[in-house]
């Protein structure tokens, strides 16, 4: 193997590695973000909504009871 061939191989390998790293990490990050977003939307939002709703309902019920007692 000649020095020139070794250099070409080394350069092309490092170029491919950096391209590979960039593309893979970009794709991976976007996939990971979208997965987390869908998990958050399908799990966290409904839970948050129902918890929020039950808290609001209990506050509303308390207010209704409180105003009934006043009158």
Task: Give a written overview of the molecule.
- There is one protein chain.
- With 71 residues, this protein is an all-alpha fold.
- The chain has one helix spanning 3-70.
- It is rod-shaped and about 100 Å long.
- The termini are far apart.
- The relative contact order is 0.05.
- The mean pLDDT is 84.
Taking all Cα atoms into account, the compactness measure Rg is 29 Å
Our measurement of the CA-to-CA distance between the termini, rounded to an integer number of angstroms, reads 98 Å
- Main sheet makeup: none
Care to count the β-strands?
Answer: 0
Rounded mean pLDDT is 84
pLDDT below 50 for ≥5 consecutive residues: which ranges? none
Beta-strand content: under 5%
Helical fraction: over 70%
- Separate helix tally: 1
Topology order in helix (H) and strand (E) letters:
H
Tell me the overall shape: rod-shaped
Instruction: Find the structural class using helix and strand composition.
Output: mainly alpha
Brief summary:
The chain is about 95% helix and about 0% strand. The chain contains one helix and no strands.
List the helices and strands and how they pair.
Blueprint: H1 3-70
Features:
mainly alpha, 96% helix, 71 residues
